[in-house]
Design brief:
Strand order of the largest sheet: 1-2
Oligomer: single chain
CATH superfamily: Nucleotidyltransferases  domain 2
Number of helices: 7
CATH architecture: Up-down Bundle
Number of strands: 2
Radius of gyration: 15 Å
CATH class: Mainly Alpha
Structural class: mainly alpha
Strand content: under 5%
Number of domains: 1
Shape: globular
Length: about 160
């Protein structure tokens, strides 16, 4: 069972902190997630770079959810996992979908292990997981935070 932002924040050393919801930042995170997804499709760069971009799309969308819910992530250890789990719980992501996308995080982290690299096939699979996740996040925002989204979009104009 996925934990909420509040549950994660209660843990000692949690990288999550309370912060007022911010419409402009929320929209900026979502727009950046879409850019990263487009970056992940660019076959002129390495599979590792594309995998980084695919994971970044998930992370940035998760940061948008956190921001809308009144949370921010510090750069402390475990911030990727914490913000992703909290966002997954907030949007009602099923455990299977969460596990898929968490596999993507593990694939991305291969760059820190000598001799282990992402493959083009894995990147394509990752993109296939990220697209519906971003759509789920967009649907959640439309249902849960339509005013925040309108405010954020008008602040960016």
């Amino acid at each position: 069972m996925l934990r909420s932002f509040q549950q994660i924040a209660r843990e000692p050393g949690s990288p999550l902190k309370r912060e007022a919801a911010n419409a402009r930042d929320t929209v900026t995170w979502l727009q950046a997630a879409e850019v990263k997804l487009r970056d992940a499709t660019q076959t002129v760069v390495s599979a590792g770079t594309r995998m980084d971009a695919a994971w970044d799309a998930v992370l940035l969308a998760s940061l948008a959810v956190a921001c809308a819910e009144g949370w921010r992530a510090t750069s402390d250890k475990g911030h990727h996992a914490a913000v992703f789990e909290g966002a997954g719980q907030a949007i009602g992501l099923g455990q299977g979908r969460f596990d898929e996308l968490d596999t993507l995080r593990d694939w991305r982290n291969r760059k820190y292990r000598a001799g282990q690299f992402s493959t083009d096939a894995e990147v394509e699979e990752a993109i296939g997981w990220v697209r519906p996740f971003l759509a789920e996040v967009a649907t959640w925002f439309a249902q849960q935070h339509p005013v925040l989204m309108r405010q954020g979009l008008s602040a960016g104009s």
